[in-house]
Structures are given as structure tokens and as C-alpha cells.
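This section describes the prediction task in plain terms. A model, or a person checking by hand, is given the sequence of a single protein chain and must write out its three-dimensional structure as a string of C-alpha cells. No templates, partner chains or ligands are provided. The sample shown here is typical of the held-out split.
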Amino acid sequence: MLNNRSRLDWCLSKEDRLKRIPANHLKSKEHIEKAKHNLLATDYNIKGGFNDWAVSQAYYAMYHGLLAILYMFGYESRNHECTISAVEHLIETKNLELDIKDVAFIRTTEQMKLQDAKSLREEFQYGTKTDVNKEILNNLVKRAKEIVEKIEVTLGND
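The expected answer:
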């Protein structure tokens, strides 16, 4: 497995993955708003019995939080793996005070653990199952809300 610096370099090697841009506070704020919108959609889908779509919405809430971070630090990403790697790099280089465990929760692990948000999203978005284990769903939604709030506070977008 490549380390985060190597992954970041790979991501930056093609602009359709990740590119440097001037920091954009407005785009950062817009992505936080989109994250909160997705959290509302998560709750709405759960109430309506669309738990499979709630999984995707919870994942995308966290993902838009990560995009908010990147815009604040002068990056634009069009690749999920590169988004996650860039945020991990910012944490590891002490440019961002965020818990690496929160980002690890979002990342797809090599083991494809069921509690991994991206793995869950892929399972329910691309698969045919619609029934989601309530405990897993509740944990995902709880963590998504916590992570989006942490990102918003960290960036000062509250």
C-alpha cells in the first residue's frame, strides 16, 4: 500500500483526480451546506423506509465534508480515493486538526469491513439489497453527523 505522500503525488499527477487551486472559502462553505443537506436526506430516507439510500446519503454527507476541507486548503478533487488521501495527508503533516480515525471510517479498507462507510455505500448503491441492519445504520448516521460537525467546527464554517 502506498503511503499518503505517494498517493497524494499520484493523485496530483493527473488533474482529473486532484489539482491545486487557490483556496476557496465559498466552495468550502457550500460543501458543508451540501453535507448538512445530505444528513437531512439521510433522516428523510430512513423515515420513508429507504434505508439503502440513507447509507449513500450518510456517506456523501461525510464526503462533502472532506471536499470542504480540500477547498479550504486549495485542492479540487474528482476522485474519492484522492479526496480521502489528501485529507489524510493534511492530518499527518499537522496542517489539519482532525482525528485520522474519522477519515479511516470513511475510507474503503483493504478488508472491506462492513462498518466502513464507503464499503457500505457501494454495497447498497450498486447491489440489490434494500434492508440495512438497524445497528449498522444507526452507527453510520451517528458517526456521519459527528464527523460533519467536527469538520464544520474545524474549518470555522459554523
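For orientation: The mean pLDDT is 86.
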